[in-house]
Amino acid sequence: MFSRDIGIDLGTANVLIHVKGKGIVLDEPSVVAMDRNTGKVLEVGEAAWKMVGRTPGNIEAIRPLKDGVIADFDVTEAMLKHFINKINVKGMFSKPRMLICCPTNITKVEQKAIKEAAEKSGGKKVYLEEEPKVAAIGAGMDIFQPSGNMVVDIGGGTTDVAVLSMGDIVTSQSIKMAGDKFDNEILNYVKKEYKLLIGERTSEDIKIQVATVFPGARDESIDIRGRDMMSGLPRTITIKSDEIEKALRESVYVIVQAAKNVLEKTPPELSADIIDRGVILTGGGALLHGMDQLLAEELKVPVFLAEEPMSCVAKGTGIMLENIDKIARHS
Ligand SMILES: Nc1ncnc2c1ncn2[C@@H]1O[C@H](COP(=O)(O)OP(=O)(O)OP(=O)(O)O)[C@@H](O)[C@H]1O
Q: What positions does the entry give for ATP binding (predicted)?
């Protein structure tokens, strides 16, 4: 028996698994549906995501990762086990080595929790890598040269901003401001302005279908349904792009400021490289309409959206797995 090494992007919103030699074999939401009374796991991933906001009292749809770290250890472990069983690496091969991506500023205790969950899920040896580094590699950057590369990885729970050179992070910042917070801002806006309660799935739909963060860059509208706070009855309203741009402005500027902070701490030679090469945006949150335009205007450097931004980390783990023996020797 030989083992297939696997790379895992253990995200707040989505889990992607890359198997060496096969590519990305799993891409599912990080959600687990559980029976509140018995603690039994009912559904995981896509099937559980469909239940969010629609469960009866005894069933709970849980997102075990919050802000990019493990909020519920047991449920994370159950989710990882389920996904690893699903891809069936254990059935055909001996225990795999695992390369797992995590945000830059998690504590030692959190790192240990992630490692333990992976080991219990069948990992022979588990290595952790910092997310922005892997995202940059997955986006096609050659971070191993002595020149500056800047990546802004906007996920569901965290945004990681990093400048990399010679294979390592030179300056970075990780903030708990990303896709989930945008959804929340939209939800609060609709509640405040329209006295309408909507679910997180609806606010994500609004974000994807009509939102923009660059004033005047998009002119769409969407009809959404929710529960009227006064009458308690269902009601439909129409929301437009410019409203959402205003609702998201403050949150988006937290990301702009983090990128500015990182640039301010970057050694001048590397800053010069970034002017030439530009900044790469990765992660699902980078798909937010106008994000590239806004960052380019604010940072005064070219900004590019990576190809398939949501799979950059998983692709990056694939590239790193090619050198896993080197990583193993160094850890
Ligand atoms: N077209 C889109 N426009 C705006 N946001 C989007 C779009 N598509 C996906 N997203 C958002 O991307 C986020 C998920 O991105 P991703 O899968 O990269 O995060 P993650 O890796 O799970 O999170 P983290 O890195 O914080 O752990 C969600 O908030 C989702 O709503």
A: 12-14, 156-158, 204-207, 284-287
